[in-house]
Design a protein that fits this description.
globular, 13 strands, alpha/beta
């Protein structure tokens, strides 16, 4: 009897060669996890997998789950900013989760993931956290989908073949979700106010939205101003260096707003410690260690810090930058009387040193 395998494929890529490769020795069941790709791309990749030899193709609409669980977690950890866009790393845990679920339901013995940016180490590590006995099949280099326009609600990875050269300039046409600000110098800036409750974005300009809708609205607005372009050389786990070009307009704006709100609502020591936790959290996700005990422990710390991260942040979007122009919070530790007081005076060092704790304790008691 031919072994059954489940092969997940990212929308926006051509899976034909890889499916044909696996179909020689396996019964291939195709899985498309829809994380915000265009509907026509989702339908196209499903049809191509069937045409290439998959016995069936399943589409899972996971956009809301992705936004509510993974996007929120990344924003609260201030992940995805400059230097670490988490594209396509953030989507890998939810794809792995649905791969394992589908494999169990259909009695498959192994899984694989077709993407133009394959990371077998990260996928195998993530799968192991869900099912340590499930095999992950490597995708031969010869059948890895080339090019494409992989994207989800968090961001988009640019995978044009000529960008493998770190000296090659990104062509204007390669960007899809961010405008070229140099081509529209007279564009007027936009201002938008983002509201957070316990670190979760809940409203734009006072209008409440689910996280998925909010991210899409902000993505379109920030993208018009060229916010969120990333062109990096990164170190892979196998020792190679690789170029990563991505765009995350909405995510970049959200993280900038959330990070600024933390500065006014978290105590200095908590803020300093969390900055290190945020870096570690992003590294874990980037390396495929979502299922690790350390990530769960870091999440517990982050959850505690978000108790008071509620309020409004005003963003100015212009010239490729999302800059904060104002913030306010009922949980603020900003003391207007102390902030405006002269530096001189008879306050003892002990009293001055106790100010942050005194202010935070009063805030906590008021809540």
């Amino acid at each position: 009897m031919t072994d059954r395998i489940v092969v997940a494929c990212s929308a926006g890529v051509d899976p034909a060669a890889a499916v044909e490769h696996f179909a020689v020795d396996h019964e291939v069941l195709a899985l498309v996890v829809d994380l915000g790709g265009r509907s026509r791309e989702v339908d196209a990749v499903r049809d191509r997998m069937r045409a290439a030899g998959a016995v069936d193709a399943v589409v899972v609409d996971a956009k809301t789950e992705y936004a509510d669980r993974y996007v929120v977690a990344a924003v609260r950890a201030n992940a995805g900013g400059p230097g670490r866009p988490l594209v396509p790393a953030l989507r890998l845990p939810i794809v792995a989760d649905h791969l394992v679920r589908t494999a169990r339901q259909l009695g498959a013995v192994a899984v694989a993931h077709l993407t133009s940016a394959p990371d077998e180490v990260a996928l195998t590590t993530t799968i192991a956290g869900h099912d340590p006995d499930l095999r992950v099949l490597p995708v031969p280099t010869a059948v890895v989908p080339a090019g494409g326009t992989e994207h989800d609600v968090w961001g988009r990875v640019v995978t044009e073949p000529d960008l493998e050269d770190p000296w090659a300039a990104v062509e204007p046409a390669d960007w899809a979700r961010t405008a070229d600000v140099s081509a529209q110098p007279d564009t007027e800036p936009d201002e938008v106010t983002v509201t957070f409750e316990h670190g979760v974005p809940v409203a734009l300009d006072g209008q409440r939205f689910p996280v998925l809708r909010l991210l899409r609205e902000l993505d379109a607005l920030a993208g018009r101003h060229g916010v969120g372009r990333h062109d990096l050389v990164v170190d892979l786990l196998d020792g190679r260096k690789a170029r990563r070009v991505a765009e995350t307009p909405g995510a970049t704006a959200l993280v900038a707003a959330h990070q600024d709100l933390e500065r006014i609502t978290l105590e200095r020591e908590v803020l300093r410690c969390k900055q290190g936790v945020d870096r570690e959290w992003a590294e874990l996700v980037d390396e495929g260690r979502w299922a690790s005990g350390l990530r769960r422990a870091l999440d517990a710390f982050i959850e505690e810090t978000q108790r008071h991260v509620s309020g409004d942040v005003r963003l100015r979007l212009h010239g490729g930058v999302a800059s904060v122009t104002g913030r306010r919070s009922e949980q603020s530790l900003f003391d207007f009387e102390l902030a405006g007081a002269p530096a001189t005076g008879s306050v003892s060092f002990a009293s001055a040193r106790a100010r942050p704790t005194r202010t935070a304790t009063r805030r906590d008691r008021a809540n």
